[in-house]
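Thread: Newbie trying to understand structure tokens

Hi all, I'm a second-year student working on a class project, and my supervisor (Dr. K.) asked me to get a predicted structure for one chain before our next meeting. I've only ever worked with sequences, so writing a 3D structure as a token string is new to me. If someone could post the tokens and maybe explain what I'm looking at, I'd be very grateful. Here's the chain:
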Amino acid sequence: PKGVINDWRKFKLESEDSLSSSKKEILRQMSSPHRSFSKEDSRERFCRKMSIQEYELIQDEQEDESCLQKYRRRCMQDMHQRLSFGPKYGYVCELQSGEQFLEAIEKEHKTTTVIVHIYEDGIKGCDALNNSLTCLAAEYATVKFCKIKASDTGAGDRFSNEVLPTLLVYKGGELLSNFISISEQFNEEFFAVDVESFLNEYGLLPERELPELGNGNTDEQDVE
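---
Reply by user tm_fold:
Sure, no problem. This is what the structure looks like when written as tokens:
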């Protein structure tokens, strides 16, 4: 697309201090499609043969793979930042009471997904699920992961040991999914990747967080 090509040329112009002044001028002209031309200038601009400088500049663009990768990473990061809304977490919040449980759901940003693990010590699968959610919380910082003991919810009779571990998923104060005895969905030993795949099957997790750009040495495949 022309817009992407023009943005790329501007990015290269800003990042390449070594370009000669003549090449910089050509690049400015090529990245400004809305510039006004007279009929004579337009006819000459589109009918003349490509100059050697323009040809070399285009060849430089095609060969400069490293600069292109940096540009693509910057575009991906900018797009991700524009699409990211709400607060960031990155950890599992321990809830101590039924009041905190309700506040975590009802007072949260309407675009934030809240995943609550209801557990008890000594129940099979609860420890493994807590460990898995700790890993996922670091990967999905825009999701609010919480855990609370069934005995602390104030509704222990509704969360007996037979239904634990239970996973509740909320968004905008509404219950999206209710998974009781969720460990039965996995093998005897399960890990974060298994829980992640399960939640993704139901569309309950957003896209993964993009890594920081850093010094630009990240492999291209990490952002695709």
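A couple of things are worth pointing out once you decode it. Strands lie at 92-94, 113-119, 144-149, 166-171, 174-179. Confidence is low (pLDDT under 50) at residues 218-224. Feel free to ask follow-ups in this thread.
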